[in-house]
Write a sequence for this structure.
């Protein structure tokens, strides 16, 4: 049932790392934020896809695992008391007669905002599923498209399918956790970073990982969602059975802008085109930052998204407080609420 509208200065769509930092940047300029995310936890790709992996290119953190980065960003945003609306997708975005924006979510939450920041990453992201009969009954029980905690797989016979970075990185990471780790790929060569592919080879030579190549998934066997075996086929269609407890298919993410594609914004190959100096989209008052935003020279890095959050916040201030002078100030001068 629709709730009464919640009013805010800025509605931020997406609680990934970039959306979370936008709360801070807006907060520093006195702008209140509400944040909406389709996932039921903050952190976007960092939380959903690689929480335990160290990130090495966050300035000031020689290494920080993705989950810790998200925890720090939440802590940094907390003094500005953002309201989070998690587990709900923004479905509709419309302009009101008084020039504000009305956002409506899949759970009926309605927000009225003076500006909108879209920090929706790759949109509604979901895994590319292998076309195996009955796979849905195993999903979430013994077939997983994401690994959030490697310990969950300790002592298990794990089949990993795929030839890219995720498949190779997780095979390496799970090699000392699983009772057996088997990697299926339809080619002899892996598409992963050369160092990772070399580590995979070394682990295979040491007998820690079984490379099942060139093979592809052909079927799954089991009952009540619990896998018993994965059937693989070679390029001639000859099959063999791998006894297994868990299947991890890593065939990439499907990018789906979802409802955002219907909002009339200028797009370039599923990304929102923005003016690089402000991150404003083709619509006045609607901004896009992070992975979803594009402009010449765009780098899809968390650190680029952080800078874009600062640019957008500064461009939003005059829209929310017209006529009020905005004096550029360092955080060292201003401080943050609750800290000296
Ligand atoms: C395995 C892996 C390793 C990586 N390593 C690095 C690295 O070392 N360094 C680096 O800089 N980057 C790395 N990246 C990329 C980095 O994770 C992304 O650049 C970053 O997550 C982008 O942040 P974002 O906030 O723009 O989007 P996201 O993290 O994608 O978050 C967007 C959020 O928006 C939500 N959303 C989308 N549409 C809607 C909607 N309509 N309504 C509500 N919510 C919505 C999604 O649910 C999601 O939670 C890596 C990515 C992967 C997959």
């Amino acid at each position: 049932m629709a709730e009464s509208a919640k009013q805010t200065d800025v509605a931020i769509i997406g609680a990934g790392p970039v959306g979370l930092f936008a709360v801070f940047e807006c907060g520093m300029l006195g702008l209140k934020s509400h944040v909406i995310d389709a996932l039921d936890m903050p952190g976007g790709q960092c939380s959903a896809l690689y929480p335990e992996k160290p990130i090495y290119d966050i300035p000031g953190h020689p290494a920080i695992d993705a989950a810790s980065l998200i925890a720090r960003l939440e802590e940094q945003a907390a003094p500005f008391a953002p309201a989070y609306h998690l587990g709900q997708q923004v479905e509709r975005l419309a302009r009101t007669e008084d020039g504000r924006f009305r956002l409506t979510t899949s759970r009926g939450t309605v927000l009225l905002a003076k500006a909108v920041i879209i920090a929706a990453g790759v949109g509604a992201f979901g895994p590319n599923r292998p076309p195996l009969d009955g796979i849905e009954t195993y999903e979430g029980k013994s077939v997983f498209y994401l690994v959030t905690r490697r310990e969950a797989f300790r002592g298990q016979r794990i089949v990993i399918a795929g030839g890219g970075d995720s498949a190779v990185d997780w095979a390496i990471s799970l090699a000392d956790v699983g009772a057996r780790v088997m990697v299926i790929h339809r080619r002899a060569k892996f598409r992963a970073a050369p160092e990772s592919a070399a580590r995979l080879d070394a682990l295979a030579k040491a007998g820690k990982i079984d490379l099942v190549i060139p093979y592809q998934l052909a079927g799954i066997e089991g009952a009540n969602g619990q896998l018993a075996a994965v059937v693989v086929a070679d390029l001639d269609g000859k099959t063999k059975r791998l006894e297994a407890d868990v299947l991890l298919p890593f065939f990439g993410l499907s990018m789906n802008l979802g409802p955002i594609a219907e909002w009339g914004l200028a797009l370039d190959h599923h990304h929102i085109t923005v003016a690089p100096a402000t991150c404003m989209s083709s619509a006045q008052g609607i901004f896009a930052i992070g992975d979803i935003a594009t402009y010449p020279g765009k780098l899809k890095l968390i650190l680029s998204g952080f800078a874009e959050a600062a640019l957008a916040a500064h461009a939003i201030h005059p829209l929310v407080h017209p006529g009020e002078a905005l004096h550029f100030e360092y955080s060292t001068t201003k401080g943050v609420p609750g800290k000296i």
About this structure: Helices lie at 17-28, 44-49, 66-77, 165-174, 194-205, 302-320, 331-334. The chain has a mean pLDDT of 94. The CA atoms of residues 71 and 198 lie 33 Å apart.
